[in-house]
Write a structure and sequence with these properties.
The strands form 2 sheets. Strands 2-3-4-7-8-9 form a 6-stranded antiparallel barrel. A two-stranded antiparallel ribbon has the order 5-6. With about 110 residues, it is an all-beta fold. Helix content is about 0%, strand content about 45%. The N and C termini lie close together (about 10 Å). It has one domain.
């Protein structure tokens, strides 16, 4: 994967995903990785193992339709250091589901 990275340092920590326009983005949170395709209007979540200081790995919650491309209605918030907020059509019937994530740690543009 190559491309633009947005990390939590200095001015870059203030950049927001909606401000950058279209394209494909990988958003890493504390507990998952999200691939957002703003051109196709889809989001895909992959849970990540979380290391624990004294007991190995902490379980991460499985969410409905993990690893599937889900219709993405809006990216309401995506900023390093804050919880990402997505509006998704999880059921496929137009009823919006809002999903809030653990804090975003990295945003990377995915080049084709």
């Amino acid at each position: 994967m190559t491309g633009e990275e947005i990390r939590p340092t200095g001015e870059q920590a203030q950049l927001k995903l909606p401000a950058v326009g279209a394209g494909r983005w990988r958003v890493r949170t504390e507990t998952a990785s999200y691939d957002l395709d703003l051109d196709a209007g889809t989001a895909r979540r992959a849970p990540l193992p979380v290391p624990m200081e004294d007991s190995g790995w902490a379980p991460v919650a499985d969410l409905r339709r993990d690893e599937e491309a889900i219709p993405l209605i809006w990216v309401l918030r995506c900023r390093v250091g804050e919880s990402m907020l997505l509006a998704l059509d999880l059921r496929g019937d137009g009823v919006i589901t809002f999903r809030a994530t653990t804090p975003v740690v990295l945003i990377v543009r995915i080049d084709d």
